[in-house]
Amino acid sequence: MIDGARSLRQGQVTETEVREAVRLFREPHKAKQVIAALTELQSYGTDVLFVDGDLHISGDLDLSDEEVYLLVVRGDLTVGGCYGDSDDPESFLLVTGDMRARDVVTAGWLEVHGDLHTGRLIGDYNDCSALIGGDVHAALFYGEEHWFTIDGRLDANVVIGTPRTSAECPAVLELDDVRLLEHFDRELLYADVDVDADGNPLVEVDGFRDFGAVKRRVRAGQPLHAHGRD
Question: What is the per-residue pLDDT for 45?
């Protein structure tokens, strides 16, 4: 249970409140999906949590670990560690203010009406999506196949691949760019090093060898490169 949150399962939140709150979603299909699931949440063992104001989490926040189907924060959300959500089972986060987190790994439905500030922003698969009403500020952004609606500006030091997003992207490093080795350890990548006839090194990169390992490092707060660059 998240400190300061009210629970539907514990009778601290009513279904009427849930129906009113989900109207805040800017994509109507989310509200319909949550309402349709209300009668089944008890059998799923998941909960709906409301925070009336700002929420500060000193460590990690993972909606699956918390057994949360929907978390509504009527204010700003600050996560000292990594924020995570899931697409199986699906989970929803609705933040009416700004969100800050050390890192974000999102596979579920993430909606922030203000700005998102984070270190590494990682998307995961394409069943769900993210919506950011303001700007995104990140040290590294890899969207994978996840869709990101960004109504403001995307400000990222490094953008990996060509993300699926509504925002205009800064210059990207494609998944076959050898400069990926400046940001990721070789064991995370399909990387081959050979030499030509004159003994000059030939380096080829072809995407991630182990995307799961990338996500695990981000969740654990570990660097993706031995020199700790990202």
Answer: 84
Q: Strand pairing partners for 191? A: 205
Give which of 133, 59, 220, 132 is closest to 141, Cα–Cα.
Answer: 132
From 52, 51, 50, 57, select the one nearest 102 (Cα to Cα): 57
Within 10 angstroms of residue 51's Cβ, the number of other Cβ atoms is 19
Q: How far apart are CA 6 and CA 71, in angstroms?
A: 10
Q: What is the pLDDT of residue 230?
A: 64
- 67/52 Cα distance (integer angstroms): 19
pLDDT lower than 50: segments of the chain: none
Alpha-carbon distance of 214 to 185, in angstroms, equals 10
Q: Name 73's bridge partners.
A: 51, 95
What is d(CA 66, CA 93) in angstroms, rounded to the nearest whole number?
A: 12
Q: How far apart are CA 218 and CA 230, in angstroms?
A: 10
Q: Can you say whether residue 221 is alpha, beta or left, with left for phi > 0 and alpha for psi between -120 and 50 degrees?
A: left
Beta bridge partners of 141: 121, 159
pLDDT of residue 41: 83
Which residue do the tokens 């081959």 mark?
A: 192
Whether 148 contacts 132, CB under 8 Å: yes
Q: Can you tell me the distance from the alpha carbon of 104 to that of 54, in angstroms, rounded to the nearest whole number?
A: 18
3-class secondary-structure state, position 226: coil
Closest-CA residue to 17 (of 28, 27, 6): 6
